Amino acid sequence: MKQWPLSNLWKKLPEQVRRLSILGIILVAFFLMIRSLLIPSDFGKFGHYRASAVEEIASLPMQYAGQMACVECHEETVTLKGKGYHKNVACEICHGPAAAHTRDPGSVKLTAPRGRGYCPICHEYLPSRPTGFPQIVSNSHNPMKPCISCHNPHDPKPPQTPKECSACHGEIAKTKSLSHHVYIPCTRCHNVPKGHKISPRKFLPTKPSTREFCGGCHAKGAAGEKGIPQVDLATHGKRYVCWQCHYPHLPEAH
Amino acid sequence: MEHLKTQEGHAIERRGFIKKILQGCAALLFPGFLLAKTKKGRTKPWVLENGYNPAEHDWGMGININKCIGCGRCADACKRENNVPRAPFFFRTWVERYRIFENGKSLIDSPNGAINGFKFPADEKNIIRSFFVPKLCNHCDNPPCVQVCPVGATFKTADGVVLVDSNYCIGCRYCIQACPYGARFLDPRTRTAEKCTFCYHRIVKGKLPACVEVCPTQARVFGELKKKASPLVRFMRMNKIRVLKPSLNTEPKVYYANLDMEVR
Question: How many angstroms separate the CA atoms of A230 and A222, rounded?
Fold first, then answer.
């Protein structure tokens, strides 16, 4: 006699369990149906997500065309800028996103930031900016005139060679002017080659390198004006160069 | 003997029973095997419509703190490129200014995400260090936001970018809570979660993310993590690299050079 084990089992179950399991089966079927309705067909194709979402995100429109896109029609500006200080400053920083302009330059016009307010966003002096980045204090740097009347925005070099170190090292000059070293000229401690004020990175000035250099004024018994505080070079902060403890442009001893 | 025999009889009955159970189970599982087979057949390389194959790439970003001038052009370009609401609470990337004082206290600010740059600080005294830190989604290799999404609307693609499916997101904000970097927000127009995509629509076309495109000092570097000749790999070889909150094991893919210990 052949008998299905399952149907046997089913008959053996108590009545209430049978009814309950029918209800359970209906609920599970209902759940599966709703689930298949709610979950998109391509869900889980490549992972726990909707595969077509990637395609949707990838096909969003671009606003920024990139620097290469301008060469075709503005070659002169691109080559001019490529040789100057602003070579890494993208056209679209100043002129705004230009993808639409590259497609249809006739009807999509770009704007140019001609006012004085714009350039300081990068060039205003801020203590947090890395040293060496060219900064100005716009309130005192040739006020009232637009920046572009002296600096070509596509090739912004200082219009003439500056005389003072403070033109470019404003932060250090300002610091030094408040320090005990205020009356020591920069060139007492730095040998500045001629070219430095024209191509500063190509011709770098020297910096003091020994303890004896500071000792020239500060060592016990050094000749010099009266009132210069003196220390014993043999014991004072030995093993370190002086500027590991004293900032030379603002030496403090407290 | 009698006793043993009945036992054997039982044994046969039991074996038959187990056999049938196993057969039943196999029958139930059979469609599953079939499905698995078809699924396996489908995992052939997945290529987007424009020919981009996610499996061939592995993206990351490097940020050099020593080069950042805090101009905030990245934050501005990001909003324009990705149509992010202009209101000052919604950022996919932003720049923070850190100021660390003599007494050990530190002050962090980011006025409007630095979209209008920074102003000269009023309280400038007794600062020992100060610098800018651009921030964005870290596209973690082990993303907590993906783990908590109840519907699978945020996910990591094969190229390592974490994306949000805004057509599928239910706006429950779990991911916003889960992100340890505060990189997500709820878009007020769609009521769905939003965040940096590494400008996915640009990188699949071989372009740079907008923030990298406009960075004037090359403080941001974008590229492949697994290819030898990539600007990012070079960047990581040349600099001492730190990531944000390494102890959380999220394995971020935004790598900072010259990052101060103070930054969290």
Answer: 8
Which tokens sit at A218? 């500060």
Chain CA centroid to CA B15, Å: 53
Tokens encoding B226: 């697994």
What is the distance in angstroms between the CA of the first residue and the CA of the last residue of chain A? Answer: 106
Q: Measure the CA–CA gap between B221 and B230, rounded to whole angstroms.
A: 10
Taking only residues 67 to 96 of chain A, the set having a beta carbon closer than 8 angstroms to any beta carbon of chain B reads 67, 86, 88-90, 92-93, 96
- A41 touching chain B per CB within 8 A: no
Find, among B140, B216, B214, the residue nearest to B183 by Cα.
B140
Query: Burial, A196: exposed, middle or buried (Cβ in 10 Å; 0-12, 13-18, 19+)?
Result: middle
Q: Among B69, B99, B200, select the one facing A58 at the smallest CB separation.
A: B200
* Cα A118 from Cα A127, distance rounded (Å): 19
- Secondary structure (DSSP) of B3-68: HHHHHHHHHHHHHHHHHHHHHHHHHHHHHHHHHHHHHHHH-SPP--TTS--GGG--EEEEEEGGG-
Which residue of chain B comes nearest to A99, CA vs CA? B81
Say if the ipTM goes beyond 0.90: no
Is-contact B80 A93, C-beta < 8 A? no
Helices (H), chain A: 5-12, 15-38, 51-58, 68-71, 75-83, 91-95, 99-103, 120-123, 170-177, 186-189, 211-218
Domain ranges of chain A: 52-108
Q: Which of residues 177-196 of B touch A (CB under 8 A)?
A: none
Q: Mutate which of B53, B69, B84, B130 to test chain A, going by most A C-beta atoms within 10 A?
A: B69
Distance in angstroms (rounded) separating the CA atoms of residues B200 and A60 = 9
Shortest CB distance from B118 goes to which of A46, A58, A126?
A: A126
DSSP letter (8 states) at residue A50 = B
State the pairing for strand pair B127-136/B93-101. Answer: antiparallel
Q: Are A63 and B204 in contact (CB under 8 A)?
A: no
pLDDT tens digits for chain A (254 residues)?
456 677 888 888 888 998 999 999 999 999 999 988 888 888 888 888 888 899 999 999 999 998 889 999 999 999 999 888 899 999 999 999 999 999 999 999 999 999 999 999 999 989 899 887 888 888 888 888 899 998 999 999 877 777 788 877 877 888 888 889 999 999 999 999 988 887 787 789 999 999 999 999 999 888 777 788 999 988 998 888 999 888 899 888 76
Q: How far is CA A28 from the centre of its chain?
A: 55
